[in-house]
Amino acid sequence: MNGEDEVLLLLVGDDWAEDHHDVELQDETGRRLGKARLPEGIAGIARLHAMIGRHVGDDDEPVEVVVGIETERGPWVQALLAAGYQVYAINPLQVARYRERHGVSGAKSDPGDAHTLADMVRTDRHQLRPVAGDSDLAEAIKVVTRAHKTLIWERTRHTLRLRRALLDFFPAAVAAFDDLDAPDTLELLAAAPDPVTAAGLDGVQITAALRRARRRGIPDKVARIQEALRAPQLAQPPVVAGAYAVTVQAQVAILTTFNTQIKLMEQQVGAHFGRHPDGEVYLSQPGLGGILGARVLAEFGDDKARYTDARARKNYAGTSPITRQSGKKKIVLARYVHNDRLLDALGQQAFAALKASPGARAYYDQQRARGIGHRAALRQLGNRLVGVLHGCLKTGTPYDERTAWAHH
Questions:
Q1: CB within 8 A of 238, min separation 6: which ones?
Q2: Per residue in 281-299, pLDDT tens?
Q3: E strands along 268-373, which residues?
């Protein structure tokens, strides 16, 4: 290799915390060139650039800076990417296992982790995945979709807390209302949070709440709700019931706010997703609508070079199985290390595709006929749909039912 082809390689290990970064700089032989504790923010990133700059020679000499860090998000990572550094986001579990390769004492420190991260990107970066070069719009979609899904998860948690409180002193409410987080339910519970008050609700009040929630079959629902609320039940002492009523009102207020914010965030998801050039391809997939499509796009990203083939996309999705073989024993298992948000969205897509796509339904039925359970069959269907999506994104063409399932 002549001098014109040589590239100066610098390796950086970055162990980050909320307010600082422990970094170590190495050359390609593993020799430590420097280490420091840098503050989070502009001052810290400037000092990192200066540390690297001190080891760069002639301005015409090509330089490649590779950074290992245990996160892929945040302004610090964006600053590293903007500087042209190649950044690898490494799972903390991988760092722990790598550390154990070189010592069994169990010792751990932030500077030590920075050294380990630098070693990993020096010797094993061919086994690691670089941070994707997603567009700003894809990153924005990720922000709003994750916020939307987090609000839904939090609403579910508070709904379960409300249900637990009602079962403890007012089980008739659980029997009366099908959806505890529905607007009409919350309105009625806010007005009547205890058994005595609820038993006094008249048909006019209940009807008005159901109409505002745009319910159907209102007369039958009113009769059923009144019957459940007025049925005999075991009661807590009045002072205890009053305390529970206060907690119910608090949960109702929280859930009402969640409902409002979820609707607002849903509008933001739709607005951002509608501007993305890949949106048409995602919306053409069976089982994907505006919200699920946005979630899947957000978690996969839109870097065209990130997934070399359909298998790489399936592995990242967590839908493809893993095989463990030792001697004559061979077992196939589901992947337990995965992106929870992506796998959740793909699972919902697979279930919805059973009605949206005859090919998907036939594929699912084939798996069930082989004796595979419902969840495993859905997972295999989801894995197949990820492969179809990859092909559509690679060619830039919408989903076609006949093409997708021709060989099945």
A1: none
A2: 999 999 999 999 999 999 9
A3: 322-326, 329-333
Q: 96 and 79 in one domain?
A: yes
The answer to the question of residue 48 being in a domain is: yes
Q: Which residues contact 276 (CB under 8 A, 6 or more apart)?
A: 137, 138, 141, 297, 302
Q: Could you tell me which residues come within 8 angstroms of residue 306 by beta carbon, excluding any fewer than 6 positions away? A: 132, 133, 300
State how far the Cα of 125 lies from the Cα of 120, in Å rounded to an integer.
6
CB 205 within 8 A of CB 218: no
pLDDT of residue 322: 64
What does the alpha-carbon distance between residue 270 and residue 290 come to, in Å, rounded to a whole number?
A: 6
Cα 79 to chain centroid, rounded: 23
Which parts of the chain sit beneath pLDDT 70? 1-5, 57-60, 103-106, 322-337, 408
Residues 187 and 123 in one domain: no
The pLDDT assigned to 133 comes to 79
Q: What is the 3-state secondary structure (H, E, C) of 230-282?
A: CCCCCCCCHHHHHHHHHHHHHHHHHHHHHHHHHHHHHHHHHHHHCCCCCHHHH
Measure the CA–CA gap between 229 and 196, rounded to whole angstroms.
9
* 88 sits in which H/E element: strand 86-89
Both 192 and 114 in a single domain? no
Note whether residue 2 is domain-resident.
Answer: no
Strands 8-16 and 63-69 turn out to be parallel
**Count of Cβ atoms closer than 10 Å to residue 53 Cβ:** 9
**pLDDT of amino acid 130:** 86
Task: Give the pLDDT score at 255.
Answer: 97
Are the C-beta atoms of residues 134 and 160 closer than 8 Å to each other? no
Q: Answer yes or no: do 368 and 290 share one domain.
A: yes
Output the CA–CA distances (angstroms, integers) from residue 57 to 33, 47, 53, 63, 68, in the order listed: 14, 18, 8, 9, 23
Residue 163 lies inside a defined structural domain of this protein: yes
**How many domains is the chain partitioned into structurally?**
3
Query: What confidence score (pLDDT) does residue 127 get?
Result: 84
Range of the domain at 383: 279-405
Shared domain check, 246 and 283: no
User: What is the pTM assigned to this prediction?
Assistant: 0.82
- pLDDT for the residue 115: 93
Burial 297-309 (b: 16+ CB within 10 A, else e): bbbbbbeeebbee
